[in-house]
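We give the chain.
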Amino acid sequence: MLFFKIELRLLDLELKPSESIISIIKQLAADKAQEVRAALLWNLAYTGYKNKELGWQIFNIIFDKTQTHLWASGEEFLYHQYYGNFEKVKPYLDKIKNEAINEAGATWGRLSALCMIQSYIDQQEFFKELKRINMKDVWDGALSVFIANLEKNPDGLCQKSFRDFINENKIQKEFGHKIDGAFSLDEKGKYIKAETGKLFIDFLTLDDDKMPRMHFFIDWIEYQVTINPIIALELCESLLSKLQSFETKSRFWHSKPLISTLTTILRESDEMDDLDLINRAVHLQDQFLMMGIDGMDDYLVEAAML
């Protein structure tokens, strides 16, 4: 790809490549060998950044005919172009959906979700299309975007879309760990609202080893108690009710954050001298103890010292 490297170097120097170089690159973009066209896509996003018109010319040639396996390589170019250029990107979203959804479903899901966030696509219409296609890769691509953008509009579209996703997919096994991971405090978890947490509990399921998919979620509840102990109490009550509803006794090893949360709830209730809250906190303690959760004995010792 010597000519493409020359083109990139000229663009770096703010120089326009010669017509002969552009002509050769366009010939390569139409090459029958998929590997040749894929190689051009590796740096096409940068070409489009330096020279939008040229970038689109090359991209249009590469994807002029039906493609199935090059969309993953072409995604980066479309990602850098969708904002402000939706009218050019939309035909390619339709092309992926109509010609390569089985091979590039995740690409379509990610790009379409990004366009939805920018209001190029209506949220309700997007979810109708997600449900119509109903493919794991498509849902997963959209979910990645919802999670990645939770902090950008914590009260808005991504938070709602994340909840809508949970409602539609019921935390199926395929998505359970990814949804739980969204609550990671090292990532986007601090931006997730209590409403979303309660919905997560409603659709909580057990893994094959009888463990609930909520490792990061438990850390998130511990974080919530530092913000609003009453909300944390309500979350723990909902979680208790959900765990008790399973026909099979669930295994629960990641218990330290939960125990810390229960300790804080009891302490805060005691400091507020609210008898109702104290009774609710003690009831939680008793019920979780009866479930045999690991570490509850230590919790009782700590609670007795309050």
Remarks:
- The two ends are 71 Å apart (CA to CA).
- Confidence is low (pLDDT under 50) at residues 6-13.
- The chain is about 70% helix and 0% strand.
